[in-house]
Structure to design on (256 residues):
């Protein structure tokens, strides 16, 4: 890969392209996306909101507000915390040049994993009677409601950091926590291919991987009885696996 080609894969305001960081960018992004989809199912099941799919939260906020639900401001906390996570990553990359490279990517992914792990500390100091069903129906301002706010905000910030770490594969805008736009793009490209347009096979595979991985992760979260604690540990394991597959030499040509 030439220096000119490498330069197009890194933008200081948005960070690196997955192909500039991972040897197997599609596989790594698929793992992160599947993990985010599974977490979102569990968060919705336990709390009635999302920590990755903030587009969904923007709709849920107004529904819960109209209902007068105590979840309204928990949803708002999720949205705001995700924004903080995204802003933090972008600001670091704008101010610290090496954050756009492999080391910066490792650190942001590890920070996301650390945030997820910190939810265990929050739960550990909470009342032992605070189960997920109690939390989702807690009155606004109660100790259980504040526990839910803290858990949701930390998880959403972790997902914001994760979503801002990589936002494209081979020049196509893609995020591990924003599959809807990619669903539209993949469907459009599939239709174009069926009608005779010969778009890039590698680009097409990259795009399709995101919505497919998201729904497979969601299926696991919905159909397999995995408690939130176990799923968070699995998510951290996935992030660590991806971190270990970040290659330091960004000039090398990535595989699929």
């Amino acid at each position: 890969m030439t220096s000119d080609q490498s330069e197009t894969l890194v933008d200081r305001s948005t960070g690196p392209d997955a192909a500039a960081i991972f040897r197997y960018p599609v596989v790594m992004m698929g793992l992160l996306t599947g993990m985010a989809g599974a977490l979102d199912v569990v968060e919705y099941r336990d709390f009635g909101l999302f920590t990755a799919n903030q587009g969904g939260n923007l709709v849920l906020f107004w529904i819960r507000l109209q209902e007068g639900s105590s979840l309204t401001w928990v949803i708002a906390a999720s949205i705001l915390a995700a924004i903080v996570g995204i802003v933090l990553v972008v600001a670091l990359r704008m101010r610290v040049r090496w954050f756009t490279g492999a080391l910066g990517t490792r650190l942001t992914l590890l920070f996301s994993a650390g945030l997820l792990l910190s939810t265990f500390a929050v739960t550990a100091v909470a009342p032992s009677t605070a189960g997920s069903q109690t939390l989702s129906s807690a009155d606004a301002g109660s100790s259980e409601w504040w526990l839910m706010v803290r858990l949701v905000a930390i998880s959403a910030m972790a997902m914001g950091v994760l979503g801002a770490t990589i936002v494209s594969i081979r020049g196509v805008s893609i995020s591990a926590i924003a599959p809807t736009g990619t669903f539209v793009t993949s469907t459009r490209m599939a239709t174009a291919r069926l009608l005779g347009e010969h778009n890039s096979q590698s680009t097409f595979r990259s795009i399709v991987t995101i919505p497919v991985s998201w729904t497979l992760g969601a299926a696991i979260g919905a159909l397999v009885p995995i408690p939130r604690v176990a799923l968070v540990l699995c998510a951290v394991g996935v992030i660590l696996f991806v971190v270990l597959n970040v290659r330091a030499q960004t000039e090398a040509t990535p595989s699929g």
About this structure: The CA atoms of residues 7 and 155 lie 33 Å apart. The longest helix spans residues 72-95. The beta strands are 10-11, 15-16, 168-169, 172-173.
